Amino acid sequence: MKLLLTAALLAMPIAATAQTAPAAAPAAAKLTIDSSIETIAANPKGKAILDANFPGMMAHEAYPMFKSMSLKQVQPYARGAITDEQVAKVAAELAKLG
Prior knowledge:
Elements: H1 2-10, H2 14-17, H3 37-42, H4 44-53, H5 63-66, H6 71-74, H7 84-96
């Protein structure tokens, strides 16, 4: 997965990766599949969901390039490494967090 995600992210247009630090989300903000990956990872329960479904994602060398994107935004660049089923599972698990 690491190689595919790295290759896919390196092929992304510069405009998609040249983002500044995202605005900090309020602590009580509801996490959804449209939340940025780093916003989800900032919540211990959200991070556990990401770690369970995408082991090593936060340690990935390209993490700084895609952390401000949502899973749905990264998915087209992942060349199958992030499946619709995984996205749906993460969405369901995030919804349970309330």
